[in-house]
Prior knowledge:
By secondary structure, this protein is mostly helical. The chain folds into 2 domains: 21-86, no CATH class; 93-319, no CATH class. 61% of the residues lie in helices and 6% in strands. The strands form 2 sheets. It has a two-stranded antiparallel sheet. A two-stranded antiparallel sheet has the order 3-4. Strand 1 and strand 2 form a beta hairpin. The longest helix is centred in the last third of the chain and has 33 residues, at 219-251. It is globular, with a radius of gyration of 22 Å. The two termini are 41 Å apart. The mean pLDDT is 82.
Amino acid sequence: MSSTIPLNINIKEPRWDQSTFVGRASHFFTVTDPRNILLSNTQLENARKIVHDYRQGVVAPELTEDELWRAKYVYDSAFHPDTGEKMILIGRMSAQVPMNMTITGCMMTFYRTTPAVVFWQWINQSFNAIVNYTNRSGDAPITVSQLGTAYVSATTGAVATALGLNALTKHVSPLIGRFVPFAAVAAANCINIPLMRQRELKYGIPITDENGNRLGESAKAAQQAITQVVISRILMAAPGMAIPPFIMNALEKRAFLKRFPWMSAPIQVGLVGFCLVFATPLCCALFPQKSSMSVTRLEPELKAKIQEISPDLGRVYFNKGL
């Protein structure tokens, strides 16, 4: 029995058109599917084998096109696009919703006391450090020193922001106080991501032409990539940290939560989770994963090199990371 699927399906690219927001959103709804973290190593390795075999022109007779795309997305959910290494479980995009809903929900529930602020901001930045390292762009290594600097700086920045804002909001409405964790998270993202990816800012990230041919490394491309990721991360956190405070503020005035105050945390976690199910893929889709920039915006030496090799090349491409 011969395979009925064609051998020219471009599984290096997502299944949906990435030039449109809807196409990118469809792609990331699949990539961030929390069910992917439940897959066994055997299932992940099987997906990798299917993808690698297909790229070599080897297709199992019983394989269907839907199964091929499923294998591609399972592979993408667990293996780094540039290095091919299996990513840390909690750093994968499929772990974003369950991890963030738990951490964010607890940050927003236990924000009144200093020990609680310090503990949950520390937990959140520890998780962010793992995510930022796991989803870094390119194949450049990061040193222990760089990792430690980014982690300590982001944690310190988040805790200082949260404690400072908590002090300022002691005499205002409790509703305003509920937004302190979001301000701290936004500030920490502006610190954590650039520091975690500082090597890219110094040495650049791989840039290619539209056919994937590597042209060099560009720090200018890294700046654009990291800026896009910071914006996406802040907006990703916004719905889950901006909508539940209004709901919880209203619920805490009701008899139910006055009678069962211990339900506050699970309700808050659930509300955050509901928001994140949609916010995570939609905000990941704001910018194309395969971002591009004009050759004229590159470093002078790199621009001159490219124009010498390909005078007609107008744009270069790069993986912005997540």
